[in-house]
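Training component of the fellowship. As part of building independent skills, the fellow (R.M.) carried out the full modelling exercise for a liganded target. The chosen ligand was glyoxylic acid. The inputs are recorded below so that the supervisory panel can assess the work.
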Amino acid sequence: MSFTVIEECTPRLNRSELAVPGSNPRFLEKAAGSDADVVFLDLEDSVAPDDKEQARKNVIEALNTFDYGSKTVSIRINGLDTHYMYRDIVDVLEQAPDKLDLIMVPKVGTAADVYAVDTLISQVEAATGAKKRIGIEMIIETALGMMNINEIAGASSRNESLHFGVADYAASTKARITTIGGPHPDYHVLTDPDAEGNRDVHWGDMWHYAISRMVVAARANGLRAIDGPFGDFSDPDGFRAHTLRARVLGCEGKWAIHPSQVDLANDLFSPSDDDVAQAKRILEAMETAQKEGQGAVALDGKLIDIASIKQAQVLVKKAEEIGGR
Ligand code: GLV
Ligand code: MG
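Fellow's submitted model of the complex:
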């Protein structure tokens, strides 16, 4: 282990994160009854420029009216390049005191962006005597943000999570794709021809690098890594396949841009009973091994060692968090 100890952010369940347009009061109310772990009330890209002021008012009203229960509640503010952003923070924190848990910063490009947001939040918190300390979520969705991701992830003690915003990222990097998330047929390899000259096409995952990069930056700074939107909400199989890839790379949650994606995400990011039972067997086997002075043993014909303890503990801890919800 390095001498540098990674401090973990405030622990929260973040299997599903439901996006709710601030311009739609009915959706803001419905979200209060959702099973999502986190809801983010959106003031940014799901709201047209002419609706920005009204959406902010709707969100303040919703926060003061509806009971979001044990869910974590966030707002996605407008970008730092707009004149909406300061009021998004100041008005919501002042007029709906202690209702928010998190603020989501879109299109974050540099550590200074996070610093600026932290400054504003800190000033409002101090002036209003807020009881809740607001955490920060950041969407990595530009080439600049991806380039500066390490500094961004470590820029504030409020930081809790990095999110991969695939749609804006594709636009920013000028990727030749118009769908939101999922694979693209152009990103494939051809096998060598067989004896008859036939070749197979194997689709690859064009988002592999970006998501892996985000996971590393998040985990190295004690943050959650969350995969962003999958736009085709009428394709649950595509959502599932995309989510499994993000999960296996280390993401612990995914956005739901439609309520139908919430249960899928909750389910996919919850360890199964079999996984938990197996993790407990590993912990027991390693406890016995350690009592006998061994660092590694075989379980079901496979090697397990001290690293296996940590892997198993992650799973058991997650199951406990879900049980406690
Ligand atoms: C999310 O904001 C995205 O751009 O994908
Ligand atoms: Mg975006």
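The panel noted the following from the submitted structure. The chain has two domains: 16-270, 274-324. The chain is about 45% helix and 15% strand.
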